[in-house]
Known about the structure:
The protein has four helices and ten strands; from the N terminus they run βααβββββαββββα. The chain is mainly β.
Amino acid sequence: NNAKFNLNQYSQNENKYIEExxxxxxxxxxxxxxxxxxxxxxNLVDTNQVIVEDLNIVISNxxxxxxxxxIEHLSVNLDTSYLHGSCAILNKNLIFNIKDSxxxxxxxxxxxxxxxxxxxxxIHFSGNLLANIDSVSxxxxxxxxxxxxxFEIINxxxxxxxxxxxxxxxxxxxxxxxx
Length: 179
Protein backbone atom coordinates (compact mmCIF):
# COMPACT_ATOMS: atom_id res chain seq x y z
CA ASN A 1 0.00 0.00 0.00
CA ASN A 2 1.42 3.39 -1.01
CA ALA A 3 1.92 6.20 1.49
CA LYS A 4 -0.66 8.99 1.11
CA PHE A 5 -0.26 12.74 1.61
CA ASN A 6 -3.49 14.76 1.78
CA LEU A 7 -3.11 18.04 -0.15
CA ASN A 8 -6.51 19.41 0.90
CA GLN A 9 -5.26 19.79 4.46
CA TYR A 10 -2.57 22.27 3.36
CA SER A 11 -4.14 24.07 0.40
CA GLN A 12 -6.57 26.18 2.44
CA ASN A 13 -4.02 28.57 3.96
CA GLU A 14 -0.46 28.57 2.60
CA ASN A 15 0.68 31.16 5.18
CA LYS A 16 -0.41 28.89 8.02
CA TYR A 17 1.59 26.05 6.46
CA ILE A 18 4.85 28.06 6.60
CA GLU A 19 4.08 29.08 10.19
CA GLU A 20 3.54 25.40 11.12
CA UNK A 21 6.91 24.41 9.68
CA UNK A 22 8.73 27.21 11.51
CA UNK A 23 6.90 26.34 14.73
CA UNK A 24 7.83 22.67 14.37
CA UNK A 25 11.48 23.56 13.82
CA UNK A 26 11.55 25.63 17.02
CA UNK A 27 10.70 22.42 18.93
CA UNK A 28 13.89 20.71 17.73
CA UNK A 29 16.30 20.70 20.66
CA UNK A 30 19.39 19.40 18.88
CA UNK A 31 20.87 19.52 15.42
CA UNK A 32 20.08 16.48 13.26
CA UNK A 33 21.61 15.54 9.96
CA UNK A 34 20.80 12.79 7.48
CA UNK A 35 22.94 11.87 4.49
CA UNK A 36 19.97 10.44 2.58
CA UNK A 37 16.21 10.15 3.10
CA UNK A 38 13.96 8.43 0.55
CA UNK A 39 10.18 8.43 0.18
CA UNK A 40 9.00 5.92 -2.40
CA UNK A 41 5.67 5.33 -4.12
CA UNK A 42 3.79 8.25 -2.51
CA ASN A 43 0.21 9.01 -3.53
CA LEU A 44 -0.93 12.64 -3.35
CA VAL A 45 -4.60 12.86 -2.39
CA ASP A 46 -6.99 15.81 -2.61
CA THR A 47 -10.52 15.43 -1.19
CA ASN A 48 -10.21 11.63 -1.15
CA GLN A 49 -9.17 11.46 -4.80
CA VAL A 50 -5.66 10.29 -5.72
CA ILE A 51 -4.20 12.90 -8.08
CA VAL A 52 -0.61 11.65 -8.27
CA GLU A 53 0.52 8.04 -7.90
CA ASP A 54 3.98 6.61 -7.34
CA LEU A 55 5.82 9.86 -6.60
CA ASN A 56 9.40 9.28 -5.42
CA ILE A 57 11.41 11.80 -3.38
CA VAL A 58 15.10 11.54 -2.47
CA ILE A 59 16.65 14.06 -0.09
CA SER A 60 20.44 14.24 0.32
CA ASN A 61 22.34 16.06 3.04
CA UNK A 62 19.39 17.10 5.19
CA UNK A 63 20.14 19.24 8.25
CA UNK A 64 17.46 20.17 10.78
CA UNK A 65 18.04 22.57 13.67
CA UNK A 66 15.82 24.74 15.86
CA UNK A 67 16.05 27.75 13.51
CA UNK A 68 16.64 26.22 10.08
CA UNK A 69 16.15 23.28 7.76
CA UNK A 70 18.47 22.72 4.83
CA ILE A 71 18.21 20.21 2.00
CA GLU A 72 21.34 20.32 -0.12
CA HIS A 73 19.86 18.13 -2.87
CA LEU A 74 16.24 17.25 -3.56
CA SER A 75 15.16 14.90 -6.31
CA VAL A 76 11.48 14.36 -7.13
CA ASN A 77 10.51 11.78 -9.76
CA LEU A 78 7.14 10.96 -11.26
CA ASP A 79 7.27 8.33 -14.03
CA THR A 80 10.02 9.64 -16.38
CA SER A 81 9.71 13.29 -15.29
CA TYR A 82 11.97 14.81 -12.65
CA LEU A 83 12.83 17.87 -10.59
CA HIS A 84 16.25 18.49 -9.02
CA GLY A 85 16.90 21.30 -6.59
CA SER A 86 17.64 22.41 -3.07
CA CYS A 87 15.52 23.80 -0.28
CA ALA A 88 16.02 25.76 2.93
CA ILE A 89 13.86 27.24 5.64
CA LEU A 90 15.58 30.07 7.49
CA ASN A 91 14.21 33.08 9.40
CA LYS A 92 10.60 32.25 8.46
CA ASN A 93 11.55 32.12 4.77
CA LEU A 94 11.15 29.12 2.50
CA ILE A 95 13.79 29.17 -0.24
CA PHE A 96 13.41 26.61 -3.01
CA ASN A 97 15.88 26.49 -5.90
CA ILE A 98 14.88 24.36 -8.89
CA LYS A 99 18.17 23.65 -10.62
CA ASP A 100 16.84 21.39 -13.34
CA SER A 101 13.56 19.74 -14.17
CA UNK A 102 11.84 18.14 -17.09
CA UNK A 103 8.25 17.05 -17.57
CA UNK A 104 8.09 14.64 -20.47
CA UNK A 105 5.15 14.78 -22.86
CA UNK A 106 4.04 11.26 -21.93
CA UNK A 107 4.07 12.03 -18.19
CA UNK A 108 1.08 11.45 -15.94
CA UNK A 109 1.64 15.04 -14.79
CA UNK A 110 -0.19 16.31 -17.88
CA UNK A 111 -3.29 14.39 -16.80
CA UNK A 112 -3.48 16.72 -13.78
CA UNK A 113 -3.76 19.76 -16.03
CA UNK A 114 -6.16 18.59 -18.70
CA UNK A 115 -8.92 16.05 -19.12
CA UNK A 116 -8.29 15.76 -22.84
CA UNK A 117 -5.51 13.80 -24.47
CA UNK A 118 -3.29 16.15 -26.42
CA UNK A 119 0.04 16.01 -28.17
CA UNK A 120 2.11 17.88 -25.58
CA UNK A 121 5.79 18.69 -25.88
CA UNK A 122 8.38 18.25 -23.15
CA ILE A 123 8.68 21.06 -20.63
CA HIS A 124 12.03 22.01 -19.13
CA PHE A 125 12.25 24.60 -16.35
CA SER A 126 14.36 26.01 -13.56
CA GLY A 127 13.71 28.74 -11.06
CA ASN A 128 13.70 30.12 -7.54
CA LEU A 129 10.86 30.32 -5.05
CA LEU A 130 10.96 32.53 -1.97
CA ALA A 131 7.97 32.30 0.36
CA ASN A 132 7.32 33.78 3.77
CA ILE A 133 4.30 34.70 5.85
CA ASP A 134 3.66 37.92 3.86
CA SER A 135 4.58 37.09 0.28
CA VAL A 136 5.57 34.57 -2.37
CA SER A 137 7.99 35.27 -5.21
CA UNK A 138 8.74 32.81 -8.00
CA UNK A 139 11.17 33.49 -10.85
CA UNK A 140 11.40 30.86 -13.54
CA UNK A 141 12.60 30.10 -17.02
CA UNK A 142 10.48 27.60 -18.93
CA UNK A 143 11.22 25.95 -22.26
CA UNK A 144 8.31 24.38 -24.16
CA UNK A 145 9.28 23.13 -27.61
CA UNK A 146 11.27 26.00 -29.16
CA UNK A 147 9.52 28.60 -26.97
CA UNK A 148 11.22 30.13 -23.95
CA UNK A 149 9.52 32.09 -21.17
CA UNK A 150 11.35 33.96 -18.43
CA PHE A 151 9.18 35.65 -15.84
CA GLU A 152 8.65 36.37 -12.16
CA ILE A 153 5.42 36.22 -10.20
CA ILE A 154 5.16 38.08 -6.91
CA ASN A 155 2.18 37.65 -4.64
CA UNK A 156 2.05 40.01 -1.68
CA UNK A 157 -1.06 40.03 0.49
CA UNK A 158 -3.93 40.68 -1.95
CA UNK A 159 -1.85 41.76 -4.97
CA UNK A 160 -0.14 39.71 -7.66
CA UNK A 161 2.52 41.16 -9.94
CA UNK A 162 3.97 39.50 -13.03
CA UNK A 163 7.26 40.66 -14.52
CA UNK A 164 8.00 39.21 -17.96
CA UNK A 165 11.65 39.18 -18.97
CA UNK A 166 13.10 38.37 -22.36
CA UNK A 167 10.99 35.56 -23.80
CA UNK A 168 10.60 33.96 -27.20
CA UNK A 169 7.22 32.42 -28.06
CA UNK A 170 6.81 30.21 -31.12
CA UNK A 171 3.10 29.83 -31.80
CA UNK A 172 3.60 26.54 -33.66
CA UNK A 173 4.64 25.02 -30.29
CA UNK A 174 1.05 25.40 -29.12
CA UNK A 175 -0.83 24.07 -32.18
CA UNK A 176 -1.63 20.79 -30.46
CA UNK A 177 -2.57 22.32 -27.10
CA UNK A 178 -4.92 25.04 -28.37
CA UNK A 179 -6.85 23.07 -31.02
